[in-house]
Amino acid sequence: MQLRFNRTNSEIDKMIDDLMEKAGGVHHPEQTREMIIAALKAGQDTSYLADLKLLSNTMKEMRYTTTVFAPYRQKKKVTIFGSARTLPEEEMYKKCICFSRLLADKGYMIITGGGGGIMQAGNEGAGSECSFAANIKLPFEQSANPIMLKNPRLITYKYFFNRKVAFVKESDAIAVFPGGFGTLDEAMEVFTLVQTGKTSPKPLVLVDDEEGYWEHFFRFIKERLLVKGFISAEDFSIFTITKSCEEAVQVIDEFYTNYHSIRFVNGELIIRLTKVLTLEQIEMLENEFPELRLDGSRIELISARPEEADEPDLLELPRIAFRFHHQHYGLLIAFIRRLNTF
């Protein structure tokens, strides 16, 4: 039988409905039903066992990720990337401890890769109670650090891609300390996701060492990527470079001064705020960021759209909305920083 996601599967649809009712406690049954249909279709379409194992393990890992993070959804979190080979006596290890401790004191939680080096420093500074660890199974180098070894917020992944989803999806900011291929891979992915709008806007802070690790990186981006037209000047709004852990914390904290979150509804960009903007402030934003809006669109003060009812805890927040030009996500970061000054 060829299965379909719409309700044209006759007795199979009834059996799935009965199964969910029998299991009990199923939230959003239509979404759950689609996942069951997808699993059945995969079983029909795929005879190669390794592919089915990958699909199954991916689902299991993502389900467990959601289970671990769900109780802390209202807490802001910062993901820290950096080298597993950084030693406790090194300057950057100590700077990371300072950084994560300052964040924990402000009520943030920390997400690291759960290994040694910068990852251990991040968990050490924040403390076990304010930490998550997204570890990865590797044949060498990576094992859970002593701070997170028996922590219920330790997740050990088989697949890098699931781990990367957790790092970005569950965080409100990203901090990257100097590191090797893995660190650069993680940083570049965040650059790409923010630049293309595949993750919500969030501060990306590159915490530098005294030798200027990230300054050299910045020079490469400016002299090679920008000059050749591979990126736009507005993409420099995506990240901040600093040698100060205090400034790094300030950049993250100030990003949420007035900005709360975004959502797209029927092609309209909705920006939720913590305080109402005046008409004068909206006019200033329109004049300063005309490229951000599609022709004919204005920035409007609005109330929650009906489609936002699935996030009831956010319905009372003030909002602005406009038709967004999707080529300008770097500029959107600058726009958010500007509205945070009001």
From TrEMBL:
EC numbers on record: 3.2.2.4
GO molecular function terms listed in the Swiss-Prot or TrEMBL record: AMP nucleosidase activity
InterPro entries according to UniProt: LOG (IPR005269), LOG_fam (IPR031100), LOG_family_nucleotidases (IPR052341)
Record GO biological process: cytokinin biosynthetic process
Catalysed conversion reaction: AMP + H2O = D-ribose 5-phosphate + adenine
GO CC annotation, single: cytosol
Enzyme's top EC category: hydrolase
Gene3D superfamilies: 3.40.50.450
Pfam families per record: Lysine_decarbox (PF03641)
Protein name according to UniProt: AMP nucleosidase
Organism annotation: Geomonas terrae
